[in-house]
Structure formats: C-alpha cells, structure tokens
From TrEMBL:
This is Membrane protein. The chain crosses the membrane at residues 46-64, 76-98, 105-125, 137-156, 168-186, 192-208, 228-246, 258-276, 288-308, 328-350, 357-375, 381-399. It comes from the Bacteria. PANTHER family: BLL5714 PROTEIN. It comes from Agrococcus terreus.
Amino acid sequence: MINHAGEADGDGDEVVPAAEQGRFRLLRMRARDPEEVGRTATPLELFFDLVFVVAVSIAAVNLHHALTDAHVVEGLLAYGAIFFGIWWAWMNFTWFATSFGTDDWLYRVLTFVQMGGVLVLAAGIKPMFEEGDATVLILSYVVMRVAMVAQWLRAARSGGEGGLAAKHYAIGIGAAQVLWLLSLLLPDGLTPIAFVLLIGVELAVPILAERRGSTPWHPHHITERFGLFSLILLGESLLASANAVVEALETVQELGPLLWIAVLALAVTCALWWIYFWPPHHRVINGYASSLVYGYTHFFVFAAAGALSAGIEVEIDVLTGESKLDPLAASFTVTVPIAIFVLGIWWIALRHQADRVVNIAVPAGAVLVLLDPILPFPVAVTAIILALVVAVLVVRAPLEAHEHGRMVG
C-alpha cells in the first residue's frame, strides 16, 4: 500500500513518489516491475478473494442439491457456467493487479464494485440451477467486467507495450459485455449456445490483446495469488463438509460411517493441499504461453476444489437416506473432483519439476482415485492412495531450478 507521502507502508506494493499523484489524488497507473523485490498479495486482494469464495460456496451448495436429486448433467452444466463467471472475473482482476495495481482510492472503489457484482451474482445462482434463468448472473457479471474495463482504460494511458495491450483489453472486454447483454434478448433455447460462444470470446480477449502489446506479470506474486485462492477454496470445502457432518449427526443412526467420512474428508483435503504446494509454482510461468496454460488450467483446479464439498455432502446424504443417487454414483461425486484437481496441478506445476518417479506416481494416483468407487471401501481407498502419493512427494524433492530450466527448454 502507498501512503500519502509516496512511501511504501510495508505490504509489498511499489513505492510511488507523491509528486506523481495527479488530479483528485490519483496515481499514474504504470506497468509494475516484474522483478520487483518483496512483491506480495495485498490486504485488498485477500479481501477480494474472500468475497469471491462466498459465491463459490453458494454454487457448491446448489451443486450438492442438484446431484443428490440425481440432476447430474443439469447440475454440472449450471455449476460450470456459474463457476466460469466467478473464475474469469477473479483471474482477470488478479492478472491486472500484478501488472498495474496502484491501490489508490479509485482502484479500490472499482475493486469494491467487482466485489459487489459477485455478491449479486451469488443471488442469481439458485435461479440458474432451478429454472435455468441466467438473467441475474449475466447482469451482475457485466457489472464486474465494466469495472474491469475502467481499470484497463486507466492502464492504457501509461503508454508503451503495456498501455497498448491495456487498450485492447478494454476494447475486447467492453465488446464482450455488449454481446452478453444482447444474449438476454435471445429465446431460452439459444441461451446455452450463446454461453458457449461468449465464453470463447472472453477467453480470446487476453490472447488477442497480448499479441498487440505486452503486460508484465510478477511470477512470485501471481502464483502466490493463485495459491492463496486455492487455499481458501480447500478451506471452504472442508468447512462445508464439517457443517454437513454436524447436521447429519441428528439423523444418522450409526455414527461410525459418518465419523469415518469426516476423518477421511480431512485427510483428503490435507493431501490435496500438500500436492498443490509441493512444487514452486513461480518457475512454471516463464513465458506467455506457459502463463496462459497456468491460468486457464486453474479453472478446472478451482472448480474441482469448490465441488469437493458437494461430493462429500452427497456421500453423507446417502448415509442418511436423503440422496436419490445410488452409492456408486455418489462415490464418483467425490472421486472425480479429486482426480481433476490432482491431474490439473500435475499438468501445470508438477510435471516440469519432478523426476520420473513423481511423474508416474501422481497421475497414476489420480487414475486410481477414479477407480475407487468400484472398490469395496470407496472414500477410504481414496485417502490411502493420496497418502501414498504424498509419501512419494516427501521422499522426492522438486528438481533444482537449473534442472527445471533444461526440462522446460
């Protein structure tokens, strides 16, 4: 954060001289130094994450209800569409902040607007799941993205490669929002097609903008931001699972299976945390293409982390007799998110920094987890498999930086 004298206050933000404050006490938005020493997540960014996780939590709750009512396909499609809006708004702000964050009052206000937008989006999650009504979702999403356009327009005034890219980001995002609003006029039957096409448009904006210019990113800062959001998602999933266990205590006749699920949910979540944070993530975004792979693949990692609690709750519903899914299908609601999470992290962060043993053990563990539901003790075997994967990671350290460079090159 930057104080009024233009001095850094110790939270890792760039020092900007007070003389650079323009009219209305605004700072000139300049491209940040990608090698800036001590760059860390700010309190505003952490606050931003917590608000976005509220929407993820509500989406996971509604996914749980859809799955336990055996509306599997409809529930997964709704969850995927909703999670895209949450993830894309979060990721765009995160990459913008690592490139141009100023933390002046307008930057903060526009960030708060995005936070308000995601809270409104959360109110539209239930209608989307139950009625397929995306009106509130689209309107709230557009609010968040318009705030982001204002940020990019500020950055465009900085000039240079970064300013040129920022201008094209603003144009692309703005055009996409017009298309989202026009999609509200389409017949209901065309809404899914419009969603797919407009998601493609949104994903294309960074690719096209970065071809016209270049925005800097700070490897340590950006990977810390992704790691913190993953951490919060895993914590939220564990909290939701714990709450489901507490509620089920009143109706379950035999406590043994329920307590076993609770212990194993904790073990699985801890193992996923271990796997995610085993490699130094900043080493894997050493170029434009690798940064895109890292950011885009995190959609599946984040979505899987958010969906894990829904799977645990479905398993608990099976025990209490409240689920319309058979036990085999219910087990897949737990093992599929786990396998996606593990494979996603292996693909973007582990495989380039691991030896052959780890590169066999981790994906093999994910595949075995997928086979878990056909075994006699589903969740228990999942926990054992993940514990064995963690044991391999304990024994095998990540490759040194110079070895990593040879592998990626």
